[in-house]
Amino acid sequence: MYRHSIDDPEQFWGHAAEEISWEKRWDKVLGNSSGPYYRWFEGAILNTCYNCLDIHIDRGEGDRTALIYDSPVTSVIKKYSYRDLRDLVARCAGGLVNHGIKKGDRVVIYMPMIPETVIAMLACARIGAIHSVVFGGFAARELAARIRDAQPKLIISASCGIEISRVIPYKPLLDEAITLSGTGPLLCVICQRPQSQAALIDGRDISWDQLMDTTQPAPCVPCIATDPLYILYTSGTTGVPKGVVRDNGGHLVALNWSMKYIYGMKPGEVFWAASDVGWVVGHSYIVYAPLAYGCTTILYEGKSVGTPDPGAFWRVIAEHGVDVLFTAPTAFRAIKREDPQGAFIKKYDLSKFRMLFLAGERCDPDTLSWAKDRLNVPVIDHWWQTETGWAIGANTAGLGLLPIKPGSCTKPVPGYNIRVLDDHGDELAPCQTGNIVIRLPLPPGCLTTLWNNDHDFHKTYLAEYPGYYLTGDAGFIDTDGYLWIMGRIDDIINTAGHRLSTGAMEEVLASHRDVAECAVTGVADEVKGEIPIGFVVLKAGVTRNSSEIERELVSMVRERIGPIASFKIAVVVRRLPKTRSGKILRGTMKKIADGTEYRVPATIDDPAVLDEIRESLAIRGFPKKPKK
Ligand code: COA
Ligand code: AMP
After folding, report:
1. Is-contact 556 509, C-beta < 8 A?
2. pLDDT of the residue at 217
3. Cα dist from 449 to 37, 178, 197, 455, 459, whole Å
4. Where are the beta strands (DSSP E) in 164-251?
5. Could you tell me the pTM of the whole model?
6. Separation of 614 CA from ligand 1 center, angstroms?
7. What is the pLDDT of residue 35?
8. Using a 6 Å cutoff on CB, does residue 330 contact ligand 1?
């Protein structure tokens, strides 16, 4: 199957597309009329929402459960059949139309993990509006940057989110973001939650109930397959987020295919992606893929620990009969730390549970074997990114599992022609580490461009190695053809499965009045995998207390980027280690903080700086445990 997908992608994906309901079939499976900007299913017309909801009702499956909302933080469990969900989505879509939203308009969704979020996304898809969901853990400034770029006509938000037992009011963040963005006039729809009511602004805000109550249901609007379905912003190497654009047709074909062949699912089974709808995993595997494929999907408003205990995941699996779970390794590390023996697992009947998929960061072999030994199911690490929208490398369960090599994400998935290149663009031999690239065309479902920014799309992903897409990850392919993803080639770090830009954090630190220069790097963390640490050099003449400045820096990052940055350590140093040409040696600082062995670079301008950094870190208890 893999060979077929590479040798004849048009036939391969044309065949996969037969599973989708089209209003008009494509003129061409793969068009490249616009140079490297390949387009899948050119000329075809369909509606994504129809394929996710109405189609199942038309097939006589309207009573099947589409969505289970399980919220340990509010003690609510609610089930929606495909018919229930379609009716709510159609009403919401009708409300949007009544308020002037039409095909191509952008709608920003800044919501917690509640059913209204899924309803809003699908309502946009129903009328061809382009949604842009912003993760709730981002601060007002980050939301403002997304509003400024997407230029929405309407924003849907909620009165609050709930972090374990902490109620987080969203409305003040939203109001601040709108002001900061300088965008308007805007209409805001606020879903009032009982835990906290938000004051609405007359003439600008309406409630979710008003949107839903006063309207006629809207039918599905025919959309061109290559039209955008959504924009999802992700961290780049600077403070400016990149708006990944996903189309309608290719996206649906790829996701539907993946449910069967990657996850080995059957329609009617229960799929649970324990992520957040604000991330790509949530878009693809809480909302679009399981619904398109006719599965039951779970929307879980809780964590792997603390809601209320490390048995939270097992309770959900047992209670809702989950067949396959998909989450990030960090969620398992958190469970492992609180329940090392897996005692909570024994309290639940997990007999229906078949497989665990992990992604978002490399799964360390310890976590993999802990999960496998205690759950007694295959544990599958698979590799992907916001840009691709679905897995690039995986053990494709639907094609029969291959032997698992802990630390490897197994093999390239059909559709992805993976190569490993050196810095000159020459292909490397097996087992040699280099830049991982994907030969164009990318398969359906991958980004088509960056919102309003073809130039950066080309520059970031296509320009470096003509004919290839640059993943930004480094790694190798071994002699058995297994893929090993070893880390990023840029300044992106992965904290608790969340992708963060150290460049964006550096921009915040550099804006502090006392900071002359700074560097942010990732340091190993037992649960989150990696957490950011900032090194700052103060301007000459600053005499204020360093600890006070460090505290200010920590709160600046929290305020400007959000709590999700997990930025808790800033260290004032006398100088940053640099090469003689002035390049900051971030890698060496990271090794010192991690306690791994490092060589003093021959090009360093002043080796004594490294000793000072080591001493500053030692005072703060780094490295936590010396490692070889
Ligand atoms: N709204 C507001 N704040 C949020 C938030 C949201 N939606 N999500 C997270 N935060 C806050 C957290 O409360 C925390 O705040 P704190 O610094 O005051 O404690 C901070 O952001 C960092 O969050 P996180 O890194 O998620 O840490 P955590 O301790 O709350 O949870 C895990 C740790 C491992 C349980 C959790 O990160 C997890 O389950 N991760 C799974 C990752 C995932 O879903 N990845 C997506 C790809 S599969
Ligand atoms: P995001 O866009 O937030 O999904 O983050 C994508 C990045 O996370 C990838 O480019 C990788 O660096 C990393 N990543 C995701 N899944 C894996 C995995 N299974 N193994 C290694 N790295 C991963």
Report:
1. yes
2. 96
3. 8, 26, 39, 9, 11
4. 166-169, 187-191, 205-207, 223-224, 228-234, 242-247
5. 0.94
6. 29
7. 63
8. yes
Q: What pLDDT does residue 37 have?
A: 79
Q: Tell me, what's the pLDDT at 583? A: 85
pLDDT in tens, 270-312: 999 999 999 999 999 999 999 999 999 999 999 999 999 999 9
Q: Which atom of ligand 2 is nearest to the CA of 472?
A: 10
Question: How far, in Å, is the centroid of ligand 1 from the Cα of 491?
Answer: 21
Nearest ligand to the CA atom of 359: 2
Residue whose CA is closest, atom 42 of ligand 1? 497
Protein residue closest via CA to atom 32 of ligand 1: 331
For the CA of 280, the closest atom of ligand 2 is: 4
pLDDT at site 330: 94
Residues of the chain with CATH 3.30.300.30: 496-619
Longest dimension (CA), the chain: 75
Q: Which amino acid makes up residue 532?
A: P
Torsion angle in degrees (nearest 10) through CA of 244, 249, 253, 254: -10
Residue type, 94: G
How far does the centroid of ligand 2 lie from the alpha carbon of residue 517, in Å? 29
Residue 628 structure tokens: 């070889």
Is the CATH number 3.40.50.620 carried by domain 2-302+382-475?
no
Predicted local confidence at residue 491, as pLDDT: 85
Q: With residue 549 as reference, give the H or E element that holds it.
A: helix 546-560
DSSP string, 315-352: HHHHHHT-SEEEE-HHHHHHHHHH-TT-GGGGGS--TT
Question: Which residues of the chain, if any, have pLDDT below 50?
Answer: 626-628
Predicted local distance difference test score (pLDDT) of residue 621:
87
Which residue is closest in CA terms to ligand 2's atom 7? Answer: 385
Name the segment(s) of the chain with CATH classification 3.40.50.12780.
Answer: 2-302+382-475
496-619 maps to which CATH number? 3.30.300.30
